[in-house]
Amino acid sequence: MKVIHQPVLQDVVLDMLNLRQDGTYVDATIGPGGHSEHIIKSLGSAGRLIGIDRDPEALKIAGERLPDERVTLMRGRFSDMEHLLLQAGISQIDGILFDLGISMVQMRDLFRGFSFLSDERLDMRMDRGQAISAWDVVNQYSGKELETILKEFGEERLAHKIAQAIVRQRSRKTIDSCSELSKLVAGVYGWRGKVHPATRTFQALRIEVNRELEQLDAGLDTSVRLLKKGGRMCVISYHSLEDRKVKHFFAENAKKGTIKILTKKPLIPQQEERRVNPSSRSAKLRAAEKYDA
Ligand SMILES: C[S@@+](CC[C@H](N)C(=O)[O-])C[C@H]1O[C@@H](n2cnc3c(N)ncnc32)[C@H](O)[C@@H]1O
After folding, report:
1. How many beta carbons lie within 10 A of that of residue 274, not counting itself?
2. Counting Cβ atoms within 10 Å, is residue 52 exposed (0-12), middle (13-18) or buried (19+)?
3. For atom 15 of ligand 1, which residue has the closest CA?
4. Which of the ends of the chain has fewer CB neighbours closer than 10 A, N or C?
5. Ligand 1: does its nearest atom lie under 6 Å from the Cβ of 147?
6. pLDDT, tens digit, for every residue of 232-281?
């Protein structure tokens, strides 16, 4: 079955980017190319779109979807972006989009170990070339390190208990699959509810494995440096840790006079989008314009 990833807040993104026909744009999280497909339709023949992703499988899908000479695809992380763009001869851009997290294609690929229902090995690497996977974190980090990650990246109130349960379990046998870990967390909670209690644990592991918060910092800094005066940046985040970071970054830079915030409050999907695409439910979009070039 082909998994479709619906681009989130698609019209709002186009509106906020305020595209110029001949502009140079970066989709820093091109994924399967949903947003980019719409961005490229709005550009003229001199327009350019650079699509970046750390996941080579996402780039392959994007490449098949966007066979267009105005599109350049590059593999890398946010922290590599400036270097990659310079390699492509680009030192200034008109706009940039970050649609954070993982795509449905990655989520549904059970072999990649993102989904807590799967019996596959714990993995969660966006780029399978990375050295450390969720299996390493769960089976090799100390109890204290696990607790800190669960607290900081999962905002998990039972961080201590879950870390202890992991340490106990793995002293008997390594915790190998996603479902083993989610059952363990459910056991700590004595869970009967609707939202799976392992959601926060999996979020924490994914953030740790992919260094998502450090990457976001690097991406935001680079964007402000690369944007031309009047250029726009749009960030869609899916959990409060990311959104808080974006909010503070925007506020700090607005204070310094480098950007103008375009979204006093984050923009969220309308009811209809949330109904049709449940994974858009937690999305928050913040946008800003480069002020002082
Ligand atoms: C939510 S998906 C993007 C979906 C895309 N906007 C669409 O509509 O098809 C996020 C993508 O960003 C990539 N990604 C996340 N963090 C990244 C980082 N630090 N550097 C590069 N790519 C990243 C993931 O691999 C994933 O493919």
Report:
1. 16
2. buried
3. 101
4. N
5. no
6. 999 999 999 999 999 999 999 999 999 999 999 999 999 999 999 988 99
